[in-house]
Write a structure and sequence with these properties.
Two copies of one chain form a homodimer. Chain A is of the alpha+beta class and 779 residues long. Chain A contains 21 helices and 29 strands. In chain A, helix 9 links the parallel strand 14 and strand 15. In chain A, helix 10 crosses helix 19, helix 14 runs parallel beside helix 15 and helix 20 crosses helix 21.
Chain lengths: 779, 779
């Protein structure tokens, strides 16, 4: 057992009470004096030239206070890298997707704003549009951006070893293609933003975000005002899941309206707007060619991937390599080649999402099952043979210090009763396994590290000042746990000041699981710094060495004789009496290769640590409706160390809901040209609590040497492996390897019908009648 | 000329725009969702036992949400020192002055709250009351507090040398008694407080204050919750002047109401409440016996002082020694004895105020003029003979490092044309001079120092985090000036985060001119810390030594070759690229004797520096109305160094308005028993801008070795010397030494009449007719 007071202990989160009482304010809840309502006019065309915008009639609508158009913005484009800066918010010349921002109104109420929006006259010259990534590559396709030939936004080429040689040496080689449609985050909170300028041109702005400092910098660029005049303020946030990591057009628009009229403005997106005007997940087509030894070990893999990026870059270029990297972290290969392309189409822009590249991840594992079937090797063994091991390097040269990939496989298999079920389940029942790995905290250049400041009050309480944002995952509680542990005080003694760009030092944000690893680490370092100051005085007072001391429960005492101690508060007052404040800073920056890049040079140490997850899912398919019932899911993750098992359990559950239950069974966008047909919760079908199966969670601790307390990412490698396991289980249940995701009932029914037809000599027999007899699990 | 970019330059204040546009929010302007209005029921009796409080009817008033009484408070008394803790806010047993808080109501609007207040039934047993300090000392007087015999709150005894011996050795000895009534701050903003509790029992509270951290600690005690759960938040403040340095009963009451109902509550005082229920200045009776050599040099002084403290201690015990200390700083004495008594009476409690002890200060200088007249020495020479000089120690053992007392006297005399006017003015015209000295930053134990944190943004802008509050004097601008100067950036590059107990480190507050000396010093140290980090990288890059570098106008360059430089922003980014945030802390704690105390041991180094001020006033008296017209005022102060001459000029003007124009000519409370008869601006007569005379300001720089840039206090020693100069000028004009302050027209007319009567042999002649002929200036 650990000797920690709070670390590693299950505890309810510090933000629970405010959330369950409804006291917590989300952006849409904010009410500021004299606040106006903002509304955005969006393009009805997927591709068009803006010839003229006439706002004269709209300005006469009673209650309208300000209107902004492309004339109100400075000409600076946004994109996550300099060479992908392609999006001019509020474009004056051209729109590239249905829903792109054309103008915006601030008015005294929503009705007036909408009336004015309806009165804005825009003359468009309609241009030819393209909605399919493969069509967009064609020489005849309309070009979305002049400086991006063939509509290729980015191309990530990776080539390690010699894949052709590898295939030649392989016992068995096969190539398959997998596809998936676009997916959405469907955060609980639709996008909203409130902005206010003061007379000194200082901006205060509130919005859901995955890191306030990630919002401030592009806002500074887009508005042309310095960072010290932009204050992204703390607010309760209803989820991010990889979204909300960058400026949204609405942020700039809201600020422009607020500045123009000199009053606060609030914009709240409808669900439809949230789906079309905040970036979401990519559609993907991937061809995977894999060569293996007779024992199933992969020798070579060649992957080509086309991602439909929509009209602009956003954070999409990062997403091009992530699915590949997750795969190469989880599974060994000798030779590997990857060509990832992100293609522009006239659809809303896509970016990073928590389940990166469903088609890719599920494709790799589905193909492993295909190969296993061919070799007569069961899926668990196939994965154990290929599983990453600690101390190894990935193909792209990242050292994997801690890794319990194999343990997640064996434990998940054991808990799920794999051996009793594989090949032994009744018809239309299936079991599947998936493995994945996720980066813990990748760096974003000079914004890649975090600093925390801790100050102690004279009564021994502490304030932690940190840029870490909590957007639902429990980061606030994590910071409190760490600070209380290191300072030897109680969690209720800790006050947080977080996620406010003016007050808190820069922090990279809550994307890709950096919060504990980087921001939490910084708090740990700051607390150790403060504790050292306390111990130095306490050691003198108690006449012992600093190393002999321990802080716990508001006391500083000698390790081996807990009766010899001094109240922490007393030590604080002793320092104050000497004429010094009791406070300290702590920095943490991940040890990564500074030359590594996402597109141009994806080689070198990419992040501080890697997490590894295995999920096993057991399903039953209704052959009449195609509906999948999930019977049981077992998820095992190497999280490094479990800071708060209760929170981890929630992460596991949410990951399975998003990655498996939603990501494989229901979630995916359908289109009519550039129009998304299922933008709302009613049609998009995010799983609800009542849809969720029984879940077994297995926490495995590999104690990462770099992670604070040995901890690293949790959740995301379950989300991805859950997708893979769900896909495998459905394929197993119906005896067909499914290759197009999500696996909605229509696709399952079609696969069943095709299978029955191909296996039934007499085509006249009733297909459904036969199904139960003929379908056996694929073994 | 200095080589500073901003320091020493006149510049408009950073808070000006928000104030002139009305954008700046004062506490009374705050509007929070669901906020209630609070009202306080006050005692109608000066001394009474509370037998019963019946709130049942009040609770039934529509719109009433919460009522608190003495039953809702924990039993902890407040007072600035442990041994003076005598005030239980919302007493359950006994009230001691008219206006004391008995109960409070929170309701949906003011009318409902007032209706409920009117419905609260309190049964009192009326007790004997005492309203005069001297009567209160009598053995037969009712005792206000059981543990304070003779109603003596504190007695400060100081005895240095041998005054009896000194008097025996003196050429001339005289004793006089001086008196003054109570005075008020009359800040532009009446007291107001807004409090909100969240469901986690965290308190947010806004109120005018002279230091948010000074509010937080007693609130923590009174509420029984730790400091990390109390957030005193930044708000625009309309003046303090020595007030607002401690918890007010309304702070606790507002918090109690907010906690009871779970909604924000706002209490805004009426002017009447502000005068009776926030502590104000003491009434004072002082007897001064002074022995001098033939050349006017003071050998011995024996002072006894009785201050009417009202019903409770508040900060009053500090105020008992301050007038004496100001005097002993300004003027040398060989032997001195002081006995200061603060006496309880059944009047509202009094405390520290910017013009400490009018009767004392004016008494000392008036007596110097009396002595000078006897010796044939003019007032300027009398003061030069006795003026403090640098390098000396005060009688109570404070070292005076920098001192230009004599220069202030000679320069003020010269500028005012003293030599051409003294003894040469027409009848009813008078000229007077006064000198004083004020402490710069005295310590408050473990809360005596300040820490600042500065963080740089990646674009080279800075955020300064400091506990320093700006309550009107320009502290915000001071912090910006210092940070911009030290970092070599522009003032618009600096963002302030100040005066918020949760975010900013502890700071002693803005009383007694500590802000620049302590808080500004801490910002200077923090900026130097950050600059050092920048210079280390810049020095390597430019291949020079750190000491060769200079930062100015967003550049870091080599001192002797300004063309060799590097943009500061670039250096920041270089540090970030190395994986480190650019930030730093700075502490400053004044170098004072930790054993020194205000009451029990007022010996030892009391503060970091002393300022010295001389004012000369020239007046004309209308013998028919007694009205004084001030013709010209010349104020010279040794401020150490002028950080911002424009702000200093404002300080001088405000000080003359408060100390001289108001403090001597109009301001003073009149009483009917325990009822103050002039609680509002209409009757109390604070001078307006149109009342002000021509003012000459003379800034003298002695460059204090400890003050940041050599700076120390400004303003307060003008406020006090202005009082002395005004008093002396009026006495000079009417030829009568006035001893009871303020010098209102009725007193002047009476003095004139007495003088005419005593000097006119024929009592039947028309007094007023004769006045003009007979009255000559006293020389």
């Amino acid at each position: 057992m650990s000797n920690y007071a709070f670390i590693g202990k299950s505890m309810p989160r510090v933000d629970s009470r405010a959330k369950v009482t409804g006291e917590a304010l989300f952006t849409a809840d904010l009410r500021l004096p004299k606040m106006l309502t903002g509304k955005i006019l969006r393009s009805p065309y997927p591709h068009a030239r803006i010839l003229n915008i006439d706002i004269s009639e709209a300005l006469r609508v009673p209650g309208v206070k300000a209107i902004v158009t492309g004339r109100d913005v400075i000409q600076r484009k946004w994109g996550v890298f300099g060479y992908t800066q392609d999006q001019q918010f509020l474009p004056a010349d051209r729109v590239r997707f249905i829903g792109e921002e054309v103008a915006a109104v601030a008015a005294v109420d929503e009705d007036s704003a909408q009336r004015a929006i309806d009165c804005i006259r825009v003359d468009y010259e309609i241009l030819e549009a393209v909605f399919d990534a493969m069509e967009s590559l064609a020489p005849t396709a309309p070009l979305l951006h002049d400086n991006f030939p063939h509509n290729i936004n980015v191309h990530v080429p990776i080539n390690v070893g010699d894949v052709e040689k590898g295939f030649a040496e392989s016992y068995y080689v096969r190539e398959d293609t997998f596809t998936a449609s676009e997916d959405s985050y469907f955060q609980g909170e639709p996008y909203a933003v409130v902005a206010r300028f003061d007379t000194d041109n200082n901006l205060e702005i509130w919005m859901p975000n995955a890191g306030p400092h990630m919002k401030a910098k592009p806002l500074s660029n887009a508005l042309g005002i310095p960072l010290n005049k932009i204050r992204v303020r703390k607010i309760t946030i209803g989820g991010a899941f990889g979204g909300r990591s960058e400026i949204a057009p609405a942020d700039l628009i809201c600020a422009l309206l607020a500045r123009k009229i000199g009053r606060p403005v609030k914009i709240v997106y409808t669900r439809e707007e949230n789906s079309i005007a905040t970036r979401q997940g990519h559609a993907l087509i991937t061809t995977i060619k894999t060569g293996v030894r007779q024992d199933g070990r992969v020798i070579a893999r060649d992957v080509t991937c086309y991602m439909d990026g929509g009209a602009y870059s956003s954070t999409g270029p990062i997403a091009v390599s992530v699915p590949f990297l997750c795969m190469e972290q989880a599974y060994k290969m000798e030779h590997v080649r990857y060509n990832g392309y992100r293609i522009y189409t006239n659809k809303p822009p896509r970016g990073m999402i928590r389940i990166h590249g469903r088609a890719f991840a599920c494709g790799v594992d589905t193909q492993l099952d295909m190969i296993g079937e061919h070799l007569g090797i069961d899926p668990v063994t196939m994965r154990l043979v290929n599983a990453r091991e600690p101390g190894e390097f990935t193909n792209t040269k990242s050292h994997v210090a801690s890794c319990a990939m194999k343990e997640t496989i064996t434990k998940a298999a054991e808990k799920s009763g794999w051996n009793d079920k594989w090949g032994k389940l009744p018809p239309l029942r299936g079991i599947g396994i998936g493995c994945n790995s996720v980066q813990t905290g990748f760096p974003m250049g000079i914004r890649g590290g975090s600093q925390a400041i801790i100050k102690l009050n004279e009564d021994g309480g502490a304030t932690v000042i940190s840029g870490v944002v909590d957007n639902g995952q429990g980061n606030d509680n994590m910071l409190v746990q760490i600070a209380a542990e290191e300072l030897g005080i109680r969690t209720e003694d800790v006050q947080l000041v977080t996620a406010d760009t003016e007050v808190t030092p820069s922090d990279p944000g809550a994307y890709s699981q950096v919060s504990t690893f980087i921001g939490g680490h910084a708090v740990k370092n700051a607390a150790e710094n403060v504790r050292r100051q306390l111990f130095e005085i306490a050691a003198k007072t108690l006449n012992v060495k600093v190393d002999d001391l321990k802080a716990r429960d508001r006391m500083i005492y000698v390790k081996d004789s807990p009766d010899t101690g001094i109240p922490l508060k007393k030590v604080v007052r002793m320092i104050l009496a000497q004429g010094k404040s009791v406070s300290g800073q702590g920095d943490y920056w991940p040890k990564v290769d500074p030359k590594r890049e996402w597109v141009k040079n994806p080689f070198g140490q990419m992040c501080g640590a890697f997490s590894f997850g295995t999920t096993v899912a057991e399903v039953e398919v209704d052959p009449e409706t195609g509906k999948v019932t999930v019977l049981e899911v077992t998820a095992a993750q190497d999280v490094g160390f479990a800071l708060n098992p209760l929170v981890l359990e929630g992460q596991f559950q949410g990951s399975i809901a998003m990655g498996g239950q939603g990501g494989i069974l229901t979630e995916g966008h359908v289109w009519d040209g550039g129009s998304v047909l299922n933008p709302t919760q009613l049609e998009y079908k995010v799983p609800l609590a009542c849809d969720m199966p029984k879940i077994n969670t297995i926490i495995i601790e590999s104690n990462d040497p770099e992670g604070p307390y040995g901890t690293k990412e949790s959740g995301m490698s379950i989300a991805m492996s859950a997708a893979q396991a769900y896909a495998a289980a459905v394929s197993n249940a119906i005896g067909v390897y499914m290759t197009d995701f999500p696996l909605t009932p229509d696709k399952i029914l079609e696969a069943l019908q095709n299978k029955v037809e191909s296996e039934t000599p007499n085509q006249n027999e009733d297909v459904m009648e036969k199904a139960l007899e003929l379908i056996v699990p694929a073994v």
